[in-house]
Protein 1
Amino acid sequence: MFDVVLNRDQEIRIRDSFLAKTLVHCYPHDPENLDLFLIKRTVSSPYANIHGSPLNGCFLGPFSTVDISTLHDCIIGTYAYVQVGDLSHKQIDPGQIWIKNGNVFDFSFRFPKEVLDNYISFEPDKGVQGILMDFVEERETAFQRIFETVHIEPVSTPVGASLSRYAVLKPKNRIGENVLVSQRAYLENAWMGKGANAQKNCYVVHSRLEGFNVMAHGAKVIHTRLGKKTFAGFNAFLRGKPEAPLIIGEECIIMPHTIIDLDEPLDIPPAHLVWGYIRNRNDLKKHCVSLDKLSEAGGEFALGNMRFRGNGSQFVQSFKDRIEHILTDNGAYFDGEEKRGHAQKGQNIAFNIIQPYTRGGLKGIYPTIDISP
């Protein structure tokens, strides 16, 4: 780790690109261009995440995520997740989950095509369809009303908590201290314990977060209880049912792009890593490992379709460090005076809503925009 002095403010440049309902999170990490976040000649499909990832000449499929990586001339398939550093001239298959840190560790899993197609698929003659698309589109009108309304009566919040004016809040929500609810989050009958957060494009429906929970962009929980300090990864879909609730123990790590869609009640023990597609207890056995056991892994480790190579302890610790970093940055540990984070600093934030052309040949396209301080 080393400090780099910047000579100018950070810039975001999106040029010659087409981004459809894409979340963009600015986090430049190129040592030679730390003040520049560049997305160039890139096409991104609905509900993809570009999370701190400079891109040049790439295509991102629907519900895919590129996380803190630099990509050149790549195709990222539908519902694929990559966190691999630098990647050039590669095609990532749909449903591929790949996390790699040099020679330190390498985690990979791929959804079977017949499973993935049921939840999300993208075909030229049919468009984007599946359970995930249906889930978000059924709730899209609630967001339209939020953005079309000029004045919305503010909701009172506890000490240190922050609810975005552009989040959807359905009835019967409980918001604890230091909770952060970001724009385009959706809460319905949600219990948000102290220090929990629902980041952008997250859905918390008939669910309870016990506290200090991290929900990464696009995570969805339905009829679920998350124990303290659990992590729900990017675009994870965790759906219990009234007759088959999902209970996730404390300090569990739910990997990005995990699908849990229950046909029976399920209780996941504390401090476990979970991935893949899970419907019942038998599926859990093949898609779950304790953090202690994984930390002991060195060399090769496989379970079901998951393959891991490298230092298990470093892999687990990197996740724990990232969770703590997010909680700290979000202000989960605010004590009334110190340890302020986004939940406290963002309470008086201002938004600029930029609209595309509403008619004519350019309808739906945003004009050329240059925003300067």
Note: The chain has two domains: 11-114, 139-293+317-347.
Protein 2
Amino acid sequence: MANPSGIGLYRTEVIADMRYNNVTETYDVKVEDWKRIFEHNMRSAASKGDGYVHTTIRTADLAGDKSDLAKEKREEAQEKITRDQMLALAELQDDISNQGYKNKIKLMIPMISSCEEMNNKQDMMDECAKEVGVKTIKLGCMVEVPALITELDRLYTAFMSVGSNDLIHSILSIDRYDSESIKKYDPTNPAVLKAFDQITSVGEDRDIPVSICGNLASDPRYTALLIGAGFNSMSVGIDAIPAIKEIASRIDSIEARQLFETILETETRAEREEVLEEFNNSIGLSADGRINIDLKSLDQGYDHFNDMS
């Protein structure tokens, strides 16, 4: 029913946590384990005859609530896991390519704060590929640290994925893990919208694919706003895919851009939300996220916005 185009965000720290040894305080996942797990899941999720599903894999992100390790041990563990994952994926990409399946793996790095840091990760990837004697993987970058946005015009990356959760909370200077943060969370804030606009503009100017993930991408109330910001690829929760596709099929990109610019220039949060709600109502989306479905249109497809994963 969801019919995704692929796995848009493979969160590898979930797997690492399943093999965490509380006694030794280490992650007991070896290179061969990573390769076997990645291959199994890419095969299992593929449509019949496709061999492997297109998968965007995020290297281990042990920040925030994703690990209980002390900072020093967390950083050491993340570095080791990242390197092991790169070794595994370099080998797996070569195996898959030799079977005739090209460009099935995309690998992205989380929490990048500078071009130098991204370059270092690409160097690590290149070294891993050389170690196992195969071609390297050009890495993608998660844009979720505000400091990186000022350097995007010289960022060396295969693609960019906006991590909306961390980026929005950082821009608004609110603690993502504070129970009170929901009251201050405002994805329509001009600072957030300007960041989105800058990221997608750089992507268009430099011909770098840009997508967005996180809770915002899975909320149909903001789909029009994101399309207006220039996003035409979203990684969303599998349960949200049908709703996001349906809403996207109803949105004219020019009107979405006009909506984006109007909200960008609107002063208060209440007024911005009112403008967005009025637009959503016009395309059959209520304030609580319910969609008015025209059953006669269900067989028309979603061709103009089909990059959903």
Note: The mean pLDDT is 90.
